[in-house]
Design a protein that fits this description.
single chain; alpha+beta; five-stranded antiparallel β-sheet; 27% strand
Length: 133
Amino acid sequence: MQGSGQVRKLPISALAVLLALVHAAPTRADDQVPPLQCDTGPLQRTYGGTEWVVYSCSDRNTVVIYTAAANPGKEFYFMFTSQKGELHLYGEGNGDKKYTDAAFEELKPMTREDVDALIKATELVKAPQTTDH
């Protein structure tokens, strides 16, 4: 989100459940799937005429696009995932459909190459420096 200087972190509860489900594919009991962390970024982007923040995930394959603080369509997020070699776009939340539908229309034609470019861009974002006192 440009101009405000505010970046909102992803809500942990709903996103954590969704991410757990994304990686809950049937596996043998002794197979362990590492937890998916989606905290690389954020990028500020405009989709459907409103502001969104983009994070990539630890699998270097998944992208989460969440409403920015100033987005009138909040609370909503989209997620790009790849399953069996196919790119999938998923959205969920209580956002105003006027704004989330407009963003969806802009996101749905994105290709694997577009998502890979977002991932690379999120990896270039420098995390804020924190100091321990």
